[in-house]
Specification:
Length: 161
């Protein structure tokens, strides 16, 4: 198998849309979906019951066992340095980048646990994570259409995968 491409980025950057597009012709794993299957709970319910620290621990375990061409992560995967080191060692990290206001417009009405904290708190989280996302091997403009992003990824896969 070629090196996996880890797709990271803040909430609302289009990781799920990209996953659906890539899955048409590639083996793709969505860590959030894998988490829900593995735990039998949706992520908001898990957060409510066990908290973010327990969620991040489970997420890290799933990351280390995931095998696919593309592995789409949750936005907070970068919160643990060990996750970044793992992804860099195993494959290629791709960040989908989008300005905060565009992300907020996409997520503000969602049931995501961290969105419940309000726009100011989410903006603080966005600013805290930005330097972590910037450490990816490649940063792609997530304002482009999904097809254009997928095309770029396929080109990178030919070179680096």
């Amino acid at each position: 198998m070629t090196k996996p491409f880890y797709i990271i980025g803040f909430m609302g950057t289009g990781k799920s849309s990209l996953k659906q597009y890539l899955a048409k012709s590639n083996h793709v794993i969505d860590l959030d979906e894998l988490f829900e299957t593995h735990t039998g709970m949706d992520i908001p319910a898990y957060f409510d019951r066990y908290g973010e620290a327990a969620f991040r621990l489970q997420e890290s375990r799933l990351l280390q066992n995931a095998r696919a061409d593309y592995i789409v992560t949750g936005g907070g995967i970068v919160e643990r340095e060990a996750n970044m080191e793992w992804m860099r060692k195993q494959g290629v990290i791709i960040t989908l980048d989008l300005p905060f206001e565009a992300c907020w417009e996409r997520i503000k009405d969602s049931d995501r646990p961290l969105v419940r904290n309000g726009k100011a708190a989410v903006h603080t989280l966005y600013e805290r994570r930005r330097p972590l996302y910037a450490r990816a091997n490649h940063v792609l403009d997530a304002s482009l259409c999904t097809e254009a992003i997928a095309h770029t990824l396929n080109q990178l896969k030919e070179v680096e995968g």
